[in-house]
């Protein structure tokens, strides 16, 4: 689903990712951990093709992202949940979800059917469908951002710190939904700082420190590893 091979990126003359190699296989839930400034969002942006790889390769669903183009990811079956949600604050919840649906082209079930599915998965947003997104609570916005990514039935979802700013209760709810989506067969790359929660539901994990993979492996082993703890946890 995703392969980064020996990827370097930079902001201007400042190197950021350095030799990043990371993969996500079909059916996996992989957690990318790392402290603030480690390069997690840069990795997300490299996967989207917004930040270019200066060296190495970024392949999404077997396609080189540079050649594919960011705007074609949705139609290929990739759902994105960017850091900070990035909803359209002046549009209603339905309009935000409609944009997610339309990005995936006309195939599959109609919008009303998909809207109903999303309302069942996120009961909290059912009563909010006609509300302007900018007036929702943080938790509701997080759910809408996830629903917008899921409404086109993606095969692969990439999430950048979706739990940031949520209350502990909402974080649990959010992770349960993420786990449920994974159980239903969706492949997920979950970018997180909350190691206990992220590795708790993941198959494998990577710890990113200063633009490099400092440790990787089975999620349960990472969670109990002393080396990983001293690096980051
Ligand atoms: N657009 C940008 N221009 C210059 N530097 C940036 C830009 N975006 C991020 N950075 C820097 O790159 C480093 C990694 O940032 P980021 O990938 O956002 O980290 P994380 O998501 O792990 O917190 C940070 O030092 C950050 O300040
Ligand atoms: Mg970030």
Mean pLDDT: 94
Helix content: 25-40%
Hetero ligands: adenosine-5'-diphosphate, magnesium ion
Quick one: biggest sheet? Answer: 6 strands, mixed
Identify low-pLDDT runs.
Answer: none
Number of helices: 11
Query: Order of strands in the sheet with the most strands?
Result: 8-9-10-5-11-12
Based on helices, strands and strand pairing, what is the structural class?
alpha/beta
Strand-residue proportion: 15-25%
Order of helices and strands: EEEEEHEEHHEHHHHEHEHEEHH
Radius of gyration: 17 Å
What would you call the shape? globular
Count of strand segments:
12
Q: Assembly state here?
A: single chain
| Cα end-to-end separation | 27 Å
Defining key terms:
233 residues; alpha/beta; six-stranded mixed beta sheet; binds adenosine-5'-diphosphate; binds magnesium ion
Task: Summarize the structure in words.
Helices cover 39% and strands 24% of the residues. By secondary structure, the chain is of the alpha/beta class. The model has no long low-confidence stretch (mean pLDDT 94). The chain binds adenosine-5'-diphosphate (ADP) and magnesium ion. The site of adenosine-5'-diphosphate (ADP) has 10 residues, from helix 1.
């Amino acid at each position: 689903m995703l392969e980064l091979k020996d990827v370097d990126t930079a902001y201007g003359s400042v190197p950021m990712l350095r030799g990043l190699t990371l993969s996500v296989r079909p059916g996996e839930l992989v957690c990318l951990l790392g402290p603030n400034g480690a390069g997690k969002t840069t990795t997300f942006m490299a996967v989207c093709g917004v930040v270019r790889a200066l060296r190495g390769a970024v392949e999404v669903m077997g396609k080189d992202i540079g050649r594919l183009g960011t705007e074609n990811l949705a139609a290929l079956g990739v759902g994105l949940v960017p850091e900070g949600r990035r909803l359209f604050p002046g549009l209603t919840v339905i309009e935000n979800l409609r944009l997610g649906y339309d990005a995936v082209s006309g195939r599959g079930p109609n919008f009303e059917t998909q809207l109903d599915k999303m309302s069942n998965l996120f009961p909290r947003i059912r009563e909010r469908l006609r509300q302007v997104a900018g007036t929702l609570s943080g938790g509701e916005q997080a759910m809408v951002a996830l629903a917008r990514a899921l409404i086109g039935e993606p095969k692969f979802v990439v999430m950048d710190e979706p739990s940031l700013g949520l209350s502990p209760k909402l974080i649990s709810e959010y992770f349960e939904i993420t786990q449920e989506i994974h159980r239903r067969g969706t492949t997920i790359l979950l970018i997180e700082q909350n190691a206990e929660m992220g590795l708790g539901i993941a198959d494998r994990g990577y710890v990113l420190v200063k633009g490099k993979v400092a440790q990787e492996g089975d999620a349960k082993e990472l969670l109990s590893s002393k080396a990983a703890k001293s690096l980051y946890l």
